[in-house]
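Supplementary material to the annual report.
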Amino acid sequence: EVQLVESGGGLVQPGRSLKLSCLASGFTFSNYGMNWIRQAPGKGLEWVASISSSSSYIYYADTVKGRFTISRDNAKNTLYLQMTSLRSEDTALYYCARHTIGALFDYWGQGVMVTVSS
Amino acid sequence: EIVLTQSPTTMTASPGEKVTITCRASSSVSYMHWYQQKPGASPKPWIYETSKLASGVPDRFSGSGSGTSYSLTINNMEAEDAATYYCQQWNYPSYTFGAGTKLELK
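Predicted assembly:
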């Protein structure tokens, strides 16, 4: 069974940093591209960042480019999101999701909440 | 970046009613994916590559479209179909989602 379990969220002050993790199991992690997608309270889905299976290709939404860094450790089956210079508008539930060759997000984690507030 | 515009934003439907949700892209895309999300739950893939039903999706759901116009249709609305539906596409170098359509049971 595919499982994606996010961790590392919490309350952080504006301008500070936070690092999210997503532990994957139930599939060969190193064969799949992975993503972070977020959802602000009561709002829709926003794709944040994507990383290919071997980390060769990395893409970011314009809203986080230069502040967030996506990475992965295939030996540990873990995806990361390093978030710096956090803003109130980054407050959201952050999901880890796997994507297929057809660009479908076929498996999602349960999400981890990040709250940016003083 | 391609913008996806969903309509309507919210709607209500009675049991047995036919429902159509539309997603329009600002430029032509090859196909569209759809997700269903219920309150407090993660999104689930629902329809992929425009018209293919994800595992476990009832066959009263269907998807169609091409170019810049896509739709998700429910024949014979059921209570369990009440949810928010999102369309999504990939166009290098970014993914985008529609703003969502909240479907409620009348």
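The mean pLDDT of chain B is 97.
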